[in-house]
Every structure is written in structure tokens, then in C-alpha cells.
TrEMBL record:
Name of the molecule in the record: Squalene monooxygenase
Keywords: FAD, Flavoprotein, Membrane, Oxidoreductase, Transmembrane, Transmembrane helix
Transmembrane parts of this sequence: 6-28, 429-449, 455-474
Membrane protein topology class: Multi-pass membrane protein
Localization in the cell: Membrane
EC number per UniProt: 1.14.14.17
Span of domain Squalene epoxidase: 210-483
Lineage top rank: taxon: Eukaryota
InterPro entries per UniProt: FAD/NAD-bd_sf, Squalene_epoxidase, Squalene_monox
A Pfam cross-reference name: SE
Annotated source species: Gossypium darwinii (Darwin's cotton)
Keyword Oxidoreductase applies: yes
Catalytic activity reported: squalene + reduced [NADPH--hemoprotein reductase] + O2 = (S)-2,3-epoxysqualene + oxidized [NADPH--hemoprotein reductase] + H2O + H(+)
Cofactor(s) annotated in UniProt: FAD
Amino acid sequence: MAEQYIVGVGAVIASLLGFLFLYCNSLTKFRGLRKLKRAATPKGNSVNKTGNSEGVGTTDIIIVGAGVAGAALAYSLGKGGRRVQVIERDLNTPNRIVGEVLLPGGYIKLIELGLEDCVDEIDAQEFLGYSLYKNGKETPISYPMEKFQSHISGRTSHNGRFVQRLRKKAASLHNVTLEQGTVTSLIEENGIVKGVHYKNESGQVLTAYAPLTIVCDGCFSNLRRSLCYPKVDIPSYLVALTLTNCSLPKKNYGAIILAHPSPIIWYPISSTEIRCMVNVPSEKVPSVSNGDMACYLKTLVAPKVFPEVYNSFISAIEKKGNIRIMPTKIMAAAPHLTPGALLIGDALNMRHPITGGGMTVALSDVVILRDLLRPLHDLSDAFTLSKYLESFYTLRKPMSSTINILANVLQKVFSASSNPAMENMQHTFLGYLRLGGVFSYGISAMLFGLCPRPLSIAFHFFSIAIYGIGRLLLPFPSPKRLWDGAEFLWLASKYSSPLHILRRNQTNILPSNCASIL
């Protein structure tokens, strides 16, 4: 009863603060949205001109990269009648350890693109949520699916199998061409990108021209510096193992163990395989080649894993070549407008992969870009087109900001620390989720891409803060409890920095089901 009273007070305060945010920004947002609507509506012949620009040839759009974003975009644009040329560095099946979780919000976007059959016939597993474990106690995070059809859920699978299905779907269209080649640079004339230079499989240097070049060549993009201001942070590394002959405690659920020294993430990637990810801080990554990593996993991580997977975990460590490491990258979207070119996907924006939100953000970007380009018959006026597509970076913010902020904050909260205030933060977050109702469902709806509303993060942040302080002060605010509460509040304020970007991220373009969820 006391906990619910504390959270109730927190909810009232958070609501008042939310209304204050809205009141202060209402005029600004109203004017901004009017400008956005005007910019997003082609006028006269400003973009819909007849005739082709010099050197364009027979291609409307060049797409650099055929990963999840590139292949899905190629299909959606080709389906709309565009002549699309896709240049991908390697058309063989990718062998990646990320891009394996498709949240339900991402699956909805897949349906909007007509690509839902791409998760069929690849042994993809239905994914219903996560269970968080700390000190042996479980806290479930389930999708609030009451407002959706029964077939809507997340999926987990091998990234390579999913990508190949998307590529096959795109290549099935007669006006979409997939070509293996490495794009070395953009062709720029008088400040306008006209196309790309690339090397084909035989090493021959070729050029391709189109009115619009869309770069989505992933987290290792070699073209992003030409189109944005990249500032990449690497807070940790993911150490990945593939386990067989075992199962997780809850079928169709992933699991995150909040353990010391690192959180451990689990989810199925097929009917017979489990992916295990250990999040290791960047400054503490042992070497794989000299056996230090195997020792680290056996001595520090293995004692924390579930008993039912322990033997498979040890076997996975001992299997040659089964330990794989990848840096986690965080990069805010900071594009600069370049006529004739656009940047999307992980080439533009990355978040910590602990929540598996990358593919959901990428597919949301594809839907937005498809809808923006759909009414345009000709793309030859590069400067007008660039100004028109500027709205893309605004329209993507509700989904991208919501998932990015939560992923980046939660990786800090979930990371182990000897600081008692951090322990209090973890226990407070888990206790808040256990309250259920609007508190649990509100967090999960945002986390899983079902309700991309950044302002709701502010609501829940303040509610969690007040709940945490009340939890520490009750039943009597002794001097030690007051000190612990002050430490908790200071730590919470450190993680509130993402809220500073909410003012410029907020728009009124929200899914119709948000109000019923939150």
C-alpha cells in the first residue's frame, strides 16, 4: 500500500511536470509542425519536374548496403515503381552476433512494408518479452499486447537468415538490381551528390548515377563522415556464445541476469540454439587469443548462469572459435543536409544493443522514408528534394529517441557497480516494474517500440525517482536513510541527461494506440 501511495504521488508530480513541458513547448511545436507539413507537401513542379538530371541514367535511387535497412528499403521503393540499384559489399549470408532481436514494434513495421513473410522458414522464434533476474528473483517485462492482434509479437532469429530473406524479396522485383561491390566514395559536383564510385567483384572501378543516393551501410560505414558529424562512443564490448542442447527458464522469453561483474543477456535464435551475450566494460576486455577470455567466462560469469544451462555454457566456451567479441557503439544522429544523398540505419544512429532495438528503429526509418518519397514522381531537383527530406530526421525522432534513450540508460543501470547507490537504483527499477499496471506496461510499451513517445520517459523517470526515494526513507527517515536518499537522487540526476533532448524530440505524431497503453 505504501509503495503504491508513493508512486501515486510520483505520478501526480510527473504528470504536472509533463503538462508544464507541453505548455512551454505548445506554440513552438505547433509552428514547427505547420512548417513540417508545408515542407512535406510537394508544391507545383518544385520536385515533380519532368526530365532527368545530367548523367542520371536509368536508376532513380542508389542504395548503399543491403542489410536490414537497405534490403527492406529497396523492396519498398521498388514496390512503389522506383528503379533501384543496391550495391552491397558482400551478398553472402552475414554471420553477425547482433541484429537478432526484432521487437514487436519492429514486426509491425515489417507488416506495413509487406515483408512479414521474411521471418518465415528461417526457424525464427516467437519472442514475448524479457525476464530480469537479480539475486535469483525474477521480474518479467511482457509486451502489453491487449490492443493488438494475436499474431503480433517479437521474433528472434539468425541475423544472416533474416537478411537473406529480405534480399531475396527485394531481388524478386524486376526494377530492383542487387550488385556485389564496395562503394569507395560519393560522386559530388557543385555540392550535389550525383552517385557513387565502387569496385565490383573483379576489382573493376565503376560509377553509378542517380538523383538520390541513400547510404545505409551499417555500423562500420565508410561514407558516414561525408554525410554527418559522427561521434562514436564505445562503452562496452559484447562477448557472444552460441549454446546448444539447453533451454531458458521461460519459453519464448529472453532473460537478463543482473550479475557482477557484467549483465548477461540470453535469447533463442533458433529452435535448438540460445544466444548468450556478456556485456563487458571497454576497459576490462580480456584477450581471446591467449585464453584470458575463456578463463574470465569460466571463473566470473559461469557461476552466475542458470543451472539448467551451465553445462552447455561451459561446452560453448571450450568449442573452438565460438567466442566472438563485438564493440557496442553509441552514436547520436547528427546529419548535415547534403543534396542528392541521405543517411539512414546504423550508419546514421546507434544505441546500446542491450534491449535489441536496432532493427526496430531501422524498419521505422524505412517506413517513414518510403511514405515521404511515395508522392514524388521525379527526384531531379536536388536542393528542393534535400529540403523536403529534411523532415525525415524530425519524423523519425519519436521512435528512435524513445528506444535509444531507454537502451543507453538501461545499460548503465544494469551494469554492476560497487556503489550502493547503483544497487539501490537497480532494486528501485525492478520494484517499479513489479508494481504492474501503467508502471510496468508504460515502460515495456516504450521499450518494445509499441508506443514511441519520448515525453513518457520523463513521466516514468520522475515516478521512479520519487518511488526510489520513498522506498529508502520509509518507514522512518533516519540520518542514514536521508543520506542514501540524497545519493540515490544524485545518481538519478546523472541519468536524466537524455531528458534534455526531449524538448526537441517531441512531436504530436503518435500512434493512435499510445493513449490506451499509457
